[in-house]
Amino acid sequence: MAALVETHRRARRACRDDRGGTRGNGEEARPDGRSPKSVLGKAGLILSAFGDGDLSLSLTELTARTGVAKATVHRLCQDLVACELLERDGSHYRLGLLLYAIGLRAPRQRTLRHATRPLLENLAQALDSPVSLSVPNGSDLLCIDNAGRHRNRAGATVGGRLLQLHSTAPGKLTLALLPDQYPLARPAPRMRRMTARTLTADRLPVELLRIQEQDYATDFEEHRLGYSAVAVPVRGPHDGAYLGALSVVAATARHNLPRTLTALRTASEAVTTRLAVIEAYRAEP
């Protein structure tokens, strides 16, 4: 699912620079007034219209979400079904498995997930809490893997979901460690108050400086009441570059920061070591 969503995000970005035209006379336009001109741009809008909780969408729903003319949406959906990028579900459409298969071939994601997967399982079992791996993806943060099926599963981040940057531990960690890629001005318009404890725009810079100094981020009911989280960076084996975030979420009542932080840092170091081994193995003649 994570790979599928990343594929959609790439399609959406392809559309952003493929816009033009005017409304009226039957010409398709997005709700925000921007009209993709090419067939690929419109197909990208259709694929990107599916949200996290959408198992399938009707033609009417796709038309409303994309702003593309209904006849055009219908024609493109038929083409996408023929290409196995969409599947028919009665009068509805759902995403095709081919998208998932294509996304799995992304080399960076595949390598990092391979190095992290067994550690995620062990960490989730040791802490009795859901654990997630999230990676920067353009101007977003994408959860690409998660482990743990526990009593506080309701607070977990599901694989394939985009994370809020300003209210989650992985999001704030990413803002702090990649300031050039994620300038403060970018998340500010989207800084919706998730709870009464969500940081405001004037408090966020101070929080990011603190995160840079301590090399980890916390979320004490800033994203969801009753749940707290901790995130640490996963770094590259040679240059120490920030690759993503390992995070744990737990019910606030049973949240143990020192224990969780120690376990996360140990796992993160192990991921870096495994990445080095993988790179060395691939470099062998």
Describe the structure.
The protein folds into 2 domains: 2-102, Winged helix-like DNA-binding domain superfamily/Winged helix DNA-binding domain (Arc Repressor Mutant, subunit A); 106-283, GAF domain (Beta-Lactamase). The radius of gyration is 20 Å and the shape is globular. The protein starts with a helix and ends with a helix. Helix 1 packs across helix 5, helix 2 (39-48) packs across helix 4 (70-82) and helix 6 (107-127) packs antiparallel against helix 9 (257-283). The protein is an alpha+beta fold. The chain is built from 9 helices and 8 strands.
State the gist of this model:
Keywords: DNA-binding, Transcription, Transcription regulation. The chain is of the alpha+beta class and 285 residues long. 43% of the residues lie in helices and 17% in strands.
**Sequence of secondary-structure elements:** HHEHHEEHHEEHHEEEH
In spatial order, strands of the major sheet run 5-4-8-7-6
Largest sheet: 5 strands, antiparallel
Supply the CATH architecture of the largest domain.
Answer: 2-Layer Sandwich
N-C termini distance: 34 Å
- Give the low-confidence spans: 1-8, 10-33
Mean pLDDT: 83
Question: Which key phrases capture this entry?
Answer:
285 residues; alpha+beta; Arc Repressor Mutant, subunit A; Beta-Lactamase; three-stranded antiparallel sheet; 9 helices; globular; DNA binding
Blueprint of the fold:
Layout: H1 2-16, H2 39-48, E1 57-58, H3 59-66, H4 70-82, E2 86-89, E3 92-95, H5 97-104, H6 107-127, E4 131-137, E5 140-147, H7 169-177, H8 204-214, E6 217-220, E7 227-235, E8 242-251, H9 257-283
Helix pairs in contact: 1-2, 1-5, 2-4, 6-9, 7-8
